[in-house]
Specification:
The complex is a heterodimer of chains A (about 220) and B (about 230). Chain A is an alpha/beta fold. In chain A, about 20% of the residues lie in helices and about 25% in strands. Chain A has helices spanning about 5-15, 30-35, 85-95, 130-135, 195-205; strands spanning about 25, 45, 50-55, 75-85, 100-105, 105-110, 115, 140-145, 155, 170-175, 175-180, 185-190, 210. By secondary structure, chain B is of the alpha/beta class.
Amino acid sequence: MSKLDVRAVIAKRIAQELEEGQVVNLGIGIPTLVTSFMEGKEVYLQSENGLLGMGPPPTEDQVDADLISAGKESITISSGASFFDSADSFAMIRGGHIDVAVLGILQVNTMGEIANWAVPGQPILGVGGAMDLVVGAKKVIGAATLFTKDGEPKVVKDLSYPTSGIRQIELLVTEYAVFAFENGEVIVKEIIGDLSFEELQERLSIPLRNEAISLINM
Amino acid sequence: MKNKVVQCVTELKDIFKDNQVILAGGFGLSGSPLTVIDLMAETDVKGLHIVSNNLGDHGIGLHKLFIQGQIEKAIGSFFTMNREAVVAWSEGKLEIDLIPQGTLAEALRCGGAGIGGFYTKTAVGTELAKGKEEREIDGERYIFEKAIKGDVAIIRAKTADRLGNLTYHTTARNFNPMMATAASVVIAEVDEILEVGELDPEVIVTPHVYVDYIVQTKYTKVGESYVKA
């Protein structure tokens, strides 16, 4: 699979997790692709810079420099949208009013704790809303390719990247499998790529529990 | 009625002094008071502590003040996009206080509301919690975050009436309403200035009590950019 296909596979699988009518915050990267796979299911997209009801990218004559996403891309609004200030926006996030946050991740440990804001050895100068979403959303879905460019697994025993918070995420969706986390145990919920459970077990140097219902290659 | 509307932005020049804490609205360049920042860039004011989500963009907005060495410390949530700021930080030429975006917003809200600080779960157990007081509330871990206040707030709104009531436009609202409450002097840069009574009271977001000066923007939007007229 090309890099683009891999990202699409992950985004498509995440789209299946979202339910009609949910309020969803999509992080930068793979999460933003999720909107392409909603197949008519309506969710309300929250953008932490002050919008509930984000619409698709604008046509050239719809562009308004003031109207941007949290990733600073031009956007439109959907019907029923509302604007609010940053304090209200984060009250929404930290107060537990967002159903699902889909976040790109760099690493997740066996406790389901994620690292998604800083890289070791590089200056730590950007955090944005990452930590607020991690503590505040009712459900956090991590999105990532399972291995780094160097082939290192992103599911690890101990984080080597700085943690984003102590919350245990609900689900990690990768191009090979969907993972859940329970009291320090990593559970393979579903296999969606061409690695079997045994192969996954071998390539990730942590114990896995197999709860994958279907092992059919897709 | 006090006249808050200044005819020319240069009338505001003497407000800015060395070592002030400046609250600057904006997320990226959206909602950033570019005309007032240009004025600040024309002064030789230095040692500024800038509270803002980020530091402008490519020679526009706060980035200008940074390039000119007027900023001593930046307090905000996202500076990674400002490559030069990252370099300056690593060379010890710029102090950075990194705060999660929600904490920044809430700290400003508290600053304006007479609240000394608050406890939040955000950043508990992370590097950004270092040195911060922690306590348990109903079985969960929280850290204490102090309120933020400024000497001068420079904010961007859509419409003002002559009293200083403000409305905003789309996602350009962002940090502006909280910053309007949290500084000793508040300057609002706007697209349009109306007579008192012309704004529908139901749509006013920032009531006039918070606003000291109103100035017409010199910028217009062209596509995804802000261009000086």
